[in-house]
Specification:
heterodimer; A: alpha+beta; Nuclear Transport Factor 2, Chain: A; five-stranded antiparallel sheet; 5 strands; 34% strand; B: alpha+beta
């Protein structure tokens, strides 16, 4: 049971699905900056470092037809945040492409594989909900499930002030 | 209790047959096995019993030849063991079988149990679940009568099937406008993201000849000013991915349709906010035409909110 009085499992699962899918797709498109607001800064750093290692090998990792299911949630309350640990099953086509020859260097580009993944979502205890997400810098409305970047001043939306973000994720 | 009864019967059969005076098996023996009298048992597993026995030639199931071993009892022992193992296999397989979406509208499955795949643990739990499903059913029926007084269940199912097919077609044609109208905001975002990756690969997902095999409403509920309908859909269609330039098949089979079972959730807003919360202008799309605020569009009609493929 969650201590978050506004927690609704279906809504959470729906949002979590979208966030995770967008992250995998951003990794594929090599546009992780567009999903930065979904991740804790430490996780974003780890993801960028991992992608850099692939880039050094002149490779890119591709996730296709991503589908996340079988959410099992475990709630806990820490000192200053609410935490939800989600064990999920990810089904996707995963492979590595050479950025030079565009050929598959590892993985199977035609069939989906299934792998269990653990993710940790966190929300600040003092967070507040908002009807129209706005940039804290200039007040422009933000497309949270788009790239989360203010089209006016370029500031990244701080989703952690309002909702759950991903603290940890295996991939 | 039922399982114990079956196991007990199996043991009784074992000892009863074991003590029988052996009779000649006829050529129909092999045929009755071939007929699959044991339900879902795969006849191929009999290959394991084709091994040698202590005396004479052993009965060959695959060829159907009826050569008898001098040792009748050994043959019957093996037969009884086989019979007992088959019975055990069927019991275990049936007990592992997940609960199916059934034609019986009184025993519906909640969306929560679909997401979590909660198995029914005991009879008491089953009874409890059944009672709660029954009250959900009657509640859903009241909501249906209240908001759709001139529609039948079939009308609603046809509408949902039509939405489903339109979405697949919009997906195939990268028609983002149509997808936005027919899907909830989150689902639309998810599809948009997937289509970007597909476009990057220069792929196109071709789908056609949709045929509804069976569909049923599983649950109707009213929550937060919305009507939410859970639907089971069993559909067949052709589905394959091609290279958009060369039209070479990358994935799937263009010669035979696939059959899929889905759990779909359709949502309709009862309280429609037709104006942009930022500037007050009339809002019909995600992005306000005047102030460009991006927020979920008002769903005045039913939209698809979730689509989950069922693998059992």
């Amino acid at each position: 049971m969650s201590d978050d009085v506004n927690f609704e499992e279906e809504k959470f699962v729906s949002k979590a699905n979208l966030m995770v899918k967008k992250i995998f797709n951003a990794i594929t498109m090599m546009q992780v900056e567009h999903v930065q607001h979904f991740m804790d800064p430490s996780l974003y750093q780890k993801v960028c470092e991992k992608l850099e290692r692939y880039q050094k090998k002149k490779e890119r990792v591709v996730f296709e037809q991503v589908n996340i299911s079988s959410y099992v949630l475990k709630h806990s309350t820490k000192q200053s945040y609410l935490e939800v640990e989600a064990s999920v099953m990810v089904r996707a086509i995963v492979y590595c492409l050479s950025t030079v020859s565009n050929q598959v260097v590892s993985g199977d580009a035609f069939s989906r594989r299934e792998f269990p993944t653990k993710m940790v979502f966190r929300k600040r205890l003092d967070s507040s909900s908002v009807d129209v997400p706005r940039c804290l810098g200039c007040g422009t409305t933000i497309d949270v499930y788009g790239d989360g970047i203010c089209p006016n001043c370029g500031r990244v939306y701080d989703l952690a002030n309002y909702d759950y973000i991903i603290q940890e994720m295996d991939w | 209790m039922k399982k114990c009864g079956v196991i007990f019967l199996a043991f009784v059969s074992f000892f009863f047959l074991f003590s029988f005076v052996p009779v000649s098996a006829d050529s129909g023996w092999d045929n009755s096995y071939g007929g699959g009298g044991f339900g879902g048992f795969d006849g191929g597993s009999y290959g394991g019993f084709g091994g040698s026995s202590s005396g004479g030639t052993f009965y060959d199931f695959s060829s159907g030849d009826t050569e008898y071993s001098a040792d009748y009892y050994l043959f019957e022992v093996f037969f009884c063991i086989a019979f007992f193992l088959i019975l055990l296999f069927v019991i275990v397989a049936k007990s592992k079988k997940r609960t199916h979406f059934s034609n019986d509208t009184e025993k519906t499955i909640t969306s929560r149990s679909v997401f979590r795949h909660i198995p029914f643990a005991s009879n008491e739990k089953q009874e409890e679940t059944y009672e709660s499903h029954k009250s959900e059913f009657y509640e859903g029926l009241e909501i249906f009568k209240k908001y759709f007084p001139n529609m039948t269940k079939q009308d609603l199912l046809d509408q949902f099937f039509s939405i489903f097919v339109s979405i697949q077609e919009a997906w195939m044609n990268f028609d983002y406008d149509k997808l936005e109208k027919l899907c909830s905001d989150e689902l639309f975002q998810s599809y948009q993201s997937d289509l970007e990756v597909l476009k990057m690969k220069n792929g196109k997902n071709v789908m056609h000849d949709f045929e509804k095999i069976f569909s049923n409403i599983q649950r109707i509920r009213e929550e937060d000013g919305k009507i939410i309908v859970d639907v089971y859909l069993f559909v067949s269609f052709y589905d394959y991915v091609i290279d958009a330039n060369t039209e070479k098949i990358l994935q799937g089979n263009q010669d035979s349709p696939m059959s899929c079972k889905y759990h779909l959730v359709f949502v309709k807003n009862l309280e429609v906010e037709g104006n942009c919360p930022n500037c007050g202008a009339e809002k019909q799309k995600r992005e306000c035409e005047f102030c460009h605020t991006i927020l979920p569009a008002p769903n005045q009609d039913f939209v698809l909110s979730q689509k989950e493929r069922i693998h059992y």
